[in-house]
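Sequence in, structure out. Go.
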Amino acid sequence: MAMQHPLKRTDPRRRARARAVPANRRPAMLVLAALAALALVAALAGCVGPEPRYAVRERAEPAKLPSSTVYFYPKHGQSKQQQDRDRYECYRWAVKQTGYDPGNVQPPSGKQVDVVPTVPPGHDTAAGAFTGAVIGSMISRPRHAGEGMVIGAITGAAIGASSDEERRQRTEQVQRQYDARAAAERSALVRKIQDYRRAMGACLEGRGYSVR
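Output:
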């Protein structure tokens, strides 16, 4: 009966070690798998979107405009009737000169608003870390589930943080646009009010009144 040579025997543990993935390649494989899985989850769930959503809320206390009222006092004993007539005629003249009518003022369309994200800061970072940890543990070998969870959490948090930063920057950009438009419209209206007051005052002073 022939005997098998001892050197030709194959140790099952040796075959398992030969098929195993080298240890130095496992983290890279886990990172790639986690990135691919997270990218798919983000695309399906809309976690990372090109246009982060935000809400626009009108401020409770809008900026106040200067008064257009002109106070005047007779210097030559003008009667009440004469004062009313002079005030009305100066009002008509000032409106014609400036194009501003305090009795028919249209409120500026650029209202002061606050632009806020629809989700709290750090939302996507936390969601990405949790999702990455779950996926990392699922795609890892049983003995390396903890390692995969950590790598997945770090990768997911990085993706989520990028989304949070994009939303913050977009919100600030929209806020600046609203503020610039509101400031421009308010500045134009303030100039009209000042021009009207100067025209009204000049007219009344020319008719013998003291104006302030």
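Check: The CA atoms of residues 132 and 152 lie 4 Å apart. The radius of gyration is 37 Å.
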